[in-house]
Structures are given as C-alpha cells and as structure tokens.
Write a structure and sequence with these properties.
Strand order of the largest sheet: 1-2-3-7-4-8-9-10-11
Number of helices: 24
CATH class of the largest domain: Alpha Beta
Distance between the termini: 63 Å
CATH architecture of the largest domain: 3-Layer(aba) Sandwich
Largest sheet: 9 strands, mixed
Radius of gyration: 28 Å
Number of strands: 20
Length: 671
C-alpha cells in the first residue's frame, strides 16, 4: 500500500499536479517497506547516482571525510599449523585505543602472493567462531585458505574480542556527530582491508569480501565505498523487502531516498555473486533483486560480472551457500574452473582462536565514552582546519562544507522549472497556493502577496516564520504589521507553511525503529521547503535576486537554507539566540543528524560569505569570528549582530523606500 501511495504521489507531481497529502507524511519507509529499484536510462545517469550514494553512505557513517588512517599496530600471533592451512590470532587498532579482534587463515606451501578475503560475520551467537549446520565461519576461513586465499575473519562490534562498545549504542548527541555502530563497523571493515593489503603474502589488487546476514550488510557497504574490494559475495541480505533489523545495519540518513538494492548495485561493474535463500527475505532475489542489479551491470557493459544462486534453506551461510561462493571466488580470482567442494575440517578450541583469551587489551584501550569524546574532538579539529584565512582557503572550505552540509541535510536548491505551483484561493492582494517539487510528492502551503505599486529596488521576499502563512497574513492585515510595511513600500512577499507548520501540520508516525535511517527529520524538511520556495519565488518574480527573511527559529532554518543556495539570495536571519555550540540545543530545537559533524554554523558562516547577509540576534555562542573571517576573505560586507535588529531597520533592508517617497519625506522634514 505504501508503495502505491508514493508512486501515485510522485506520478502526480511529475505531471505538474500536486498531491492532496504530503508524501513525507504519508509514505514513511522503514526496514520492512517493499522498495522498487529506480530505472536508469544511461550509464552516465547511474554513475552520477552512484557517486552521490557512495558519499551518502560515508556521510551517514561519519566517514565524510574519511578519518586519518592511524597505524593499525597489527598483532598476529598464536599460529596453529594444520594440513594445507594455518590459523593465527589478530588484534588491530582501528582507531587510537579501539581494538578489533579476528583470525587470519592462510594457505600453506603456496609461493607468491595470494588473493585476500575480508570476511565479516552475521549475528551468530558465537560471532566469528560460530560453527553449526546453518552457518560456520571457521569452515569458510579454512576452505578458502585451502583453495589459495588469505582470509581475515573479524568481529562485529560487541562480539568475542571486540567488546569495548556494545552491539548497539548511541542517542541524539551521537547522531548529531554521525557516530554510530554502523559507522564503527564500516570503519573496522575498511581497516580490515588495510590490514589484508599490507600483508606480504597478499596481492593488494585481489581483495574480495563475503559475509551473510549482518555480515552481508557489512560486505555490500564496504564494497560500495572501498574500490579495493574487487569481488564480493553478500549472502542472504540484499533484499527489496527487508533492509536489516540491527543497529549495525542502520544509521541516520543511510537510506533516505535509497535502499539496499541500489546500494548493492554500487559494486558494479566489479564481479558480484548474490546468494539468496528460499526461507528468508531474499526469497524474491532471482525474480526481483537480481534482475534490478543486473540492469545496472548491463548499462555498464558488464552483465557477465553478476551472478546469482538461490539455496533451498532458511536464513543461512550453510555449506551449499559457501560452496557457491568458493566456486565464484575461484573462477574470478584464481582462474579455476569447477571445484569448490568443501572438505572436512577441524574446529579449534575457542581459547585457541580468541585474541584476548587470557590476555588484556593494550594499556591505551578506551571506553565507549572515551571513544565518543575522541571522535567528536577529532571532528572539531577537522572543522577547525578549514577555518578560512584568505580567498584560497575560503574556496577550499566552501567546497568541503557545501558537500558535508548537503549530505547532512539531504537538501538542495531546485531550479525554478523543477517546482510546481497550484492556486487555491484568491485574495485582495494576492492568492493562496501550494508548492511541490516535480517527482517528490511534497506539498507546501503558501501565500503570495503583491503590492499595489511595485518598487523596482525591492527584490521579492520569502518570509519564513514559525507560525507560517497565518503570521504572514496577519502581519499584512495589521496597520503596524511588518508584512504590510513591505507591501506599502512596493515589495512582493511569499510566505510558506514549512514542514509540519500551519496547514502543513499532519500526523507523522515516527515510532518505527530506525526512522531517521529512511526519513528526514522535520527540521531538515523545513530547510528543503525554504529552498523549494526560493526556486518558486524566482520563477514567479522572474528574478534571480530574491530576499530571504527568517524570523525567530525560522531564521535558523533560513540560515542553513541560504548556505545551500547562492549569493543571489539576500539573507536576513534572526538566529533566535540559538546556542550553536551546545549539543542539547540541537537535539531539542534543530535535530538534523550529522549537522554538527558537517560543521554546523561554522560551515554555514563560510557558505554565507558572499552576497548580502545580515545575521542578528545571534547570541554568545554563534561563531562570529568564523563569519567575520569568511566575510573578510570574500571581500563581503555581511553583518553579524548579537542583538536583534529592529523591525524598522529590517524593513529598510528588505524594501528600501522608493525614491519618490524618500523625496517627499525629505521635503516635509520627516526622517
């Protein structure tokens, strides 16, 4: 039903019609939504989408930009020699003071360099040491090593040797800084590849990855962002009907406008084997997910590089599934044909496999609280390194912060032709209407007010207030109202009910787990609505130059919107003394995941450095030194004030009195 509602809404918007209900309130995707793979008509269209998706994943995981790769200080020890292979214990320092445990399986008696395999596990009780008919991680490590691969099986966070953090942590503060279990595990996987590629007996140009269930999610996320993985086999996970039920598979913004089938296709054109099961959520793979991904490979001229096999079994990584992977890896990385049968193997004692059995972690090991604090401090240092000093560093900071803010907000300025409008009612001095972006299914109530006599010196104004259209209309009808003053001076005004404001308020069920993995927050949607209204205003007024005035908390939304717009948007924003350096303030008043990691109002200050800008009522925490340094580097005359600007001054800023009026005032002696 949800698929049908969204499809109808998007079809209507695509035809220039506007849905009766905002799709952002009606279609609230979650992990069990049935998604449809979008159609891409060309390889260029897919490559553009793929580049965006890769950065969306990295941003969601807190890895945009990638952290510094400090030495992993690998400990490889406790070697066990068996016929045809060996097993060693491994401990890696993936972040300073954070340790990842695993086992290294190596072939015996093979000269030269071997392919490497990164092998994460799923949510088995014994983690990387699970051995039962439905899944055996030791079996695949041993069998692949016998085949000629060097295999690194490593822990999920919270399992076996990797217990400095539980398998599930985080709250609003962590979300603001893009700190999550998914991000920590994805970074561990990247460092696992670093470790494999550094081994003298591994060919760094032949790295593969495979895992099942949650390990399958780790596999396709790793492959999506790390081109060093040349061949992948995610097992029993890529599905259009279930996206992953664990915190390690979900992070804010990860699947906003996306799903695992698209993410799995990011492997293209590299060889990919989809292993599915008849008894779990991958039951439709042969007829749905595989053809969808195959279409992407076909666009890239690499259709022969993607294969699928379905095993008649419940959710698993059983022997039949493993043997399918052995054959695929052998053919794609060793040039072998046939084979792949799993021989009998010996399971070692747990104490002989655990890296921390009868041992302590190194003395510098951190707690979860310390790790979180360290990650936040590193993010702050990374932001500080971008502080502008001159025009050159300003441009570098602009490029970096624009990208980071774009992926935190997942908002953009639409071209005027991308915005549809529909008139609702006529007013004495204008009309009420609704706005929408083509193909998005959103719905933004608005009011357009025009003066009796236009002032050529007054650019049209988008006025955003927390009370929305109702406030704009009331202000236009009051003898002393601000909007009435703008109209009397010949300025046109557009007001909107930003998301969940006024007539845009509607029930929105946010109780589903991992809501922000699939849906933007109210505040992020409000920023987008402001950008959408700017696009419409430019079309309506046939003017690239427009004013954007935000009052009270709407000034905070407007500041972020202007940061993603351009310098033809003149901004006057009341920042409502928002405490820009206090996490709890964001959590309570401006909850946008990743915003602090992206640079928050430091990033905005950099992106506001050109054009006409007035930031007032900023409060003591606003990074005014950042703004002033940015304005100076840009040669701009932007203004920052801790106090609130008076209405009379704002009126002059928005709509200067027409020359004729100023002349009459001068003759009469009126100020």
């Amino acid at each position: 039903m949800r698929k049908i509602i969204l499809a109808l809404a998007c079809i209507a918007a695509g035809r220039g019609q506007i849905p009766e209900q905002d799709a952002r309130n009606v279609f609230l995707p979650h992990t069990d939504t049935h998604f449809t793979m979008p159609a891409y008509e060309s390889s260029e269209a897919w490559r553009k989408r793929a580049a965006f998706l890769k950065k969306q994943i990295l941003s969601s995981a807190g890895l945009l930009p990638l952290p510094e790769k400090t030495p992993v200080n690998a400990e490889v020890f406790g070697k066990i020699e068996r016929e045809g292979y060996s097993i060693e214990k491994v401990l890696l320092e993936t972040y300073p003071g954070f340790y990842l445990g695993g086992n290294l399986y190596r072939p015996s008696g093979r000269p030269g360099k071997s392919p490497g395999v990164a092998s994460p596990h799923g949510h088995w009780q014994y983690g990387r040491l699970e051995n039962q008919p439905l899944g055996s991680i030791p079996a695949r490590g041993i069998s692949l090593a016998r085949q000629g691969f060097v295999v690194f099986t490593y822990d999920m966070v919270g399992y076996n040797d990797t217990t400095q953090a539980p398998h599930g942590f985080g709250g609003a503060r962590e979300a603001l800084w893009s700190i999550s279990l998914l991000g920590l595990q994805l970074w561990n996987s990247i460092r696992a590849v670093d470790f494999l590629a550094s081994l003298p007996d591994v060919d760094p140009d032949r790295i593969a990855a495979t895992g099942a269930s949650g390990g399958g999610t780790q596999t396709f996320l790793l492959t999506a962002v790390d081109e060093r993985v040349k061949v992948a086999a995610p097992v029993n996970m890529i599905s259009a009907i279930m996206q992953g039920g664990s915190a390690c598979e979900n992070a804010p913004n990860l699947r906003v406008g996306a799903n695992n089938v698209e993410i799995g296709a990011l492997n293209a054109p590299r060889p990919l084997l989809l292993v599915s099961a008849t008894g779990d959520w991958t039951r439709n793979t042969p007829g749905e997910e595989f053809p969808a991904i195959q279409n992407i490979y076909r666009l890239l001229g690499a259709e022969k590089n993607v294969e699928q096999i379905q095993i008649d079994a419940p959710h698993n990584y059983n022997q039949a599934s493993r043997e399918a992977v052995y054959r695929f890896f052998g053919a794609r990385m060793l040039g072998s044909t046939g084979g792949g049968a799993e021989k009998s193997f010996r399971v070692e004692q747990l104490g002989d496999m655990l890296s921390l059995y009868m041992r302590q972690r190194p003395a510098n090991a951190v707690t979860l609280e310390q790790l979180t604090a360290n990650l936040i401090e590193e993010a702050k240092r990374g932001i500080e390194r971008l502080r502008p000093r001159d025009p050159s560093t300003l441009e570098q900071a602009k490029a970096a912060f624009r990208e980071r803010l774009s992926f935190s907000l997942l908002a953009s300025l639409p071209a005027p032709v991308e915005v549809a409008a529909q008139k609702k009612d006529s007013l004495v001095s204008g009309e009420t209407l609704v706005l929408s972006r083509h193909g998005k299914g959103d719905r933004i109530p608005a009011v357009w007010l025009q003066p009796r006599r236009a002032n050529s010196q007054a650019a049209p104004t988008l006025l955003v207030h927390p009370q929305g259209v109702a406030w704009v209309l009331s202000s236009s009808e009051s003898a002393t109202g601000f909007v009435r003053g703008v109209l009397q001076r010949g300025g046109a005004v557009l007001g909107i009910d930003a998301f969940q404001i006024g007539q845009a308020r509607a029930p929105r069920d946010q109780t589903k787990r991992f809501f922000t993995t699939f849906n933007q927050t109210d505040d992020a949607n409000r920023v987008q609505d402001i950008l959408t209204a700017i696009g419409y205003l430019r079309s309506r007024a046939a003017s690239a130059e427009v004013n954007l005035m935000g009052l009270e908390m709407a000034g905070v939304w407007s500041c972020l919107a202007r940061a993603l717009a351009d310098d033809k948007v003149n901004l006057a924003a009341d920042l409502s003394r928002f405490r820009t350096d206090t996490d709890s303030e964001y959590a309570e008043k401006l909850f946008i995941p990743g915003l602090r990691k992206a640079g928050d109002f430091r990033a905005a200050a950099v992106l506001l450095s050109s054009g006409k800008v007035l930031l007032h009522n900023t409060g003591p925490e606003f990074p005014d030194q950042w703004a002033k340094a940015s304005f100076q580097a840009a040669g701009s005359k932007g203004e920052i004030r801790e106090a609130r600007a008076a209405d009379a001054e704002l009126l002059d800023w928005i709509a200067p009195e027409p020359p004729a009026v100023r002349g009459r005032a001068k003759k009469s002696g009126r100020p």
